[in-house]
Predict the structure.
Amino acid sequence: MRLVLLGPPGAGKGTQAGRLAEKFTMATISTGDLLREHVENGTALGREARAFMDRGEYVTDDVVVRMVMRRLGDDDAQEGFILDGFPRTVPQAQALENALAAASRPLSAVLKYKIGDDMAVKRLANRLTCPNCKRTYNLAFKPPTNEGVCDACGHELVRRQDDDEVTVRRRLEVYREETEPLEFFYWERGLLREIDAEVPEDVVTERTLEEIADLADVEGA
Ligand code: AP5
């Protein structure tokens, strides 16, 4: 299965990708996580990406496309993958489509998580992330058992630098300008499936699994 998870900041893409990765054998590829690793390691790519990320704007297409194409070549991505946060622009979507067509590995579906702006701001203002195992917590909806520490791996939790309200509002604007056009791009190709994400995490997971089951029926037909 080859999935793209689409949706604005705070929609729950990373949360659902993590849950799907526990259930299925698929590589989970988050461009946000890959870019943050580059920033942390001080690579040339990370230095270039940092200024964009701090402003809540997108890193340039050529940089992100190269990074993802390299990752899609890894062994664990051959069985299937979940792309979280890629593509985000029409040129990125076209690059992905061309690469997958050349490898005769078309996308299975694009799952779009729907959420309003105020809910996104509320979720991100309260988000804590584990930089080690990438699990997310939320002080309003899902706090860790022990304050400031990851339940799964015991690492100290951090607040992402781009989660302040001003930057989140900018990220939402950029999403509307650059990423919303992808909904039509994928709808035209019959790949888009929308999921209401303003409901508890477990319910979103249930609906995601229903879409995947339906997809398996269609693919198997
Ligand atoms: P990225 O890290 O991908 O950020 P994003 O897309 O803005 O998405 P988030 O990670 O903020 O939200 P999410 O939807 O994953 O929500 P989460 O599951 O964490 O990208 C960061 C930056 O990198 C970009 O701004 C850009 O600069 C750059 N970048 C990345 N990809 C790029 C690309 N392709 N091209 C160019 N630049 C790129 O959940 C949020 C919170 O809500 C958590 O606290 C969680 O616990 C909680 N939560 C989740 N679901 C629910 C629920 N159903 N109910 C209650 N709480 C919930």
